[in-house]
């Protein structure tokens, strides 16, 4: 455990890039699971969507039923592990800790990632991190966590 005064907060830019990497990975995982489950993502095209908007809505809803749990599990399991970081955070050399500098517990990771999934689809919520002096987004505030440089 690092002492609180030794923690170096991650920059908003590095957090953004880590999240972008994670979203690409989650998208690929979700796409593979959806394909295996028979959700016809590749069969959608502009012509078909215009001709039958309900078909697009149905397919998208089915895809979300795969993507949302995949996203939650991806983040929850990795951030509650000994590495305390998703793949994107590891690439960017970041990790998630409690505000005390301690490792996250399963409960901390559960709360952080439930709030992240619920609030993440309202992208304006991420603006909180831009204006918070400690770069904490809503899910960090709820779980009392920081994203820090992995030094």
Automatic annotation (TrEMBL):
By its UniProt entry, which InterPro entries does this protein fall under? Pra-immunoreactive, RDD
Native source species: Siphonobacter aquaeclarae
The record ties this protein, via Pfam families, to: RDD
- GO CC term, one of those recorded: plasma membrane
* The UniProt record lists the keyword Hydrolase: no
Protein name, as recorded: Uncharacterized membrane protein YckC, RDD family
Membrane-topology annotation of the record? Multi-pass membrane protein
TM segment ranges:
20-39, 59-77
User: What keywords appear on the UniProt entry?
Assistant: Cell membrane, Membrane, Transmembrane, Transmembrane helix
Q: Which residues form the RDD domain?
A: 9-143
- Where in the cell does this protein reside? Cell membrane
Reading the lineage from the top rank, the first entry is: Bacteria
């Amino acid at each position: 455990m690092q002492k609180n005064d030794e923690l170096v907060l991650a920059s908003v830019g590095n957090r953004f890039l880590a999240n972008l990497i994670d979203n690409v990975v989650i998208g690929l995982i979700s796409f593979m699971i959806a394909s295996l489950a028979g959700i016809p993502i590749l069969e959608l095209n502009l012509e078909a969507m215009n001709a039958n908007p309900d078909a697009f809505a149905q397919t998208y809803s089915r895809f979300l039923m795969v993507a949302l749990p995949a996203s939650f599990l991806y983040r929850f399991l990795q951030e509650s592990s000994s590495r305390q970081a998703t793949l994107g955070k590891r690439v960017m050399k970041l990790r998630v800790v409690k505000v005390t500098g301690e490792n996250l517990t399963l409960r901390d990771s559960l709360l952080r990632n439930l709030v992240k999934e619920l609030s993440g689809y309202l992208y304006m919520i991420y603006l909180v991190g831009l204006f918070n002096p400690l770069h904490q987004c809503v899910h960090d505030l709820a779980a009392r966590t920081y994203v820090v440089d992995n030094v």
